[in-house]
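Protein: 4-hydroxy-tetrahydrodipicolinate synthase
Species: Photobacterium lipolyticum
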Amino acid sequence: MPNQNSIPAVGNERLQQTTLWTALITPFHSDESIDFATLTQLAKEQEAAGNGILILGSTGEALAMTPTEQQDVIRHICALDLSVPLMVGVGGFQLQQQMQWLDFLQDFPVDALLIPVPLYAKPGAASQLKWFNSLLDASNWPCMIYNVPSRTGVALDEQTLGSLASHPNAWAVKEASGSVEAFTRYRNAAPSLQFYCGDDGLLVDFVAAGACGLVSVAANAWPEATAHYVRQSLSQTVPNFKTLWQQASNSLFCAANPIPVKALMLHQGRLNNAGLRPPLYMEEMQELTPVLNADAAIYQWMKTCLNQ
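Structure follows.
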């Protein structure tokens, strides 16, 4: 059954205290099968850093995996009995499949769900409202609503978000529009929800606008450093690291995510293979210099922070 600590979302310290969620990659062998041994290692690295783990999001290439593979990932991660909370992605645009996915998750200790605007179909406000309400009604977990128009093709409707805010299973919003102005409009539309920045390099600006944390790609490559970055940003320490993190984060999007971060993690020795699932191919990554420079810069920044 679902983790009873995660119901309801309001007052749930396990979720409220998690300011960094790592959108975990899925490591593959050269034959494209899932590398479960490395997946274990990566999850335990995130646990050691105290980071919440988002599995089967877009960074995890979930939509390129079969339903059976997705289920196997859930079984494997949950069997690790990690001390940090787990959030699971709910994607696609076929409602019945998502309902079946929620039904499967009933037997696992999941803490929360990430629910994006439906992909590809470009639903308007009325359709978005019905879609989200259907999933929120069916959920036994707190849900983070996800706005990522660069991937879904359409932005989350602000009035729709305002209507969803009163749902008992609506807990938070991952806002990844890339715009502080848009973030502010969404937050004003649903001030009762928790807002998380969905763009690593914009965290300082989003915190100033009211963000309580980060859902991160960069934390795959830099688990401890990203956690430190989040803590410093939330403490509103003088953000002399803002430009550094913007540049480092941008390097991880010099090709389609998660191509650059996997290439970097291979170089770090944390992956045995930087394999991807079609339609993504490593041939997009023609130049490693940006991510290698970013890696060196973040390493030096973290070293300086620890010596202060």
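Remarks: The longest helix spans residues 289-307.
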